[in-house]
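To the team - pyridoxal-5'-phosphate complex, inputs and output below.
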Amino acid sequence: MARSALALLNRPSAASPAHDEGAPAFALVDPAGPHISPLDLGITRGEGIFETISVSEGRPLALEAHLRRFANSAAALDLPAPDLDVWRDAIYGVIAALDPSPEAYVKTVLTPGIEGDGHPTGYAYATQVTGFEEARTTGIRVVLLDRGLKHDVARTSPWLLAGAKTLSYAVNRAAVREAKRRGADDVIFTSSDGYVLEGPTSTVLVRRGDELLTPGVGLAILDGTTQADLFAFGEQRGLRTGFALLTAEELAASDGIWLVSSVRNAAPVRELDGTPRSVDAEFTGAMNAFLHSREQ
Ligand code: PLP
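Output:
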């Protein structure tokens, strides 16, 4: 048993040859060891996809939604379709290898492997986590940053892969560093034509009266699993849920803003571009309790 665990997949895609014919579908290996070639396209080109899945009391949350999105991202990058049965087994395998803990996550990664050799690389890494209490209760300070793309970029330039969960997160990381330089914790991207998009690793959720809203589909943003589950939470509480094209002004005028994501869960925005905002502690607490106790 351990605080982290790693499974290497022997055949991450049914369409590709196994790394080792006859070997088991995945192998648990030392997470500290070197396992990936320096020539892997995931490293040399940032080519590949990933998912990060929350684990609560040993249960992977929204697992099927994550696996579906993983397959969609693979298709967007023309990667061979992941064999989801093998991935599911590997995810449960790394979770079983962890010491029991209230919270953990599993990260799944699929890359084309080494250029030309036809063997995709796939692994699932699990680790225990703590440390999100303050973001979930006190909240986070957020700045709006222009992503530099129009809101309809998915339609006009699908090759930009906006909305796929690719390994190319250097821009997302740079945006968070810019937020820190501005005295904030996180970012909400806007489109160059003025619409609210998403965070670098989160979905925007907005409360307006009895409505719980998120930026609309077709905006080249990631289809959030946490947001989908929080819509179910909102509906249980009698709120209307839906997608909306929101401007920065409409965002600022809303009753509540959260950045929601796997692992950190719901983080209320307590400051937007330097302007303090009130945080609904009861509603936020109920959101996070709901996320923690989801059945799957
Ligand atoms: N948007 C982006 C760009 C993300 O990277 C993530 C998660 O990492 C999300 C939204 C939230 O997705 P989920 O709730 O499925 O974790």
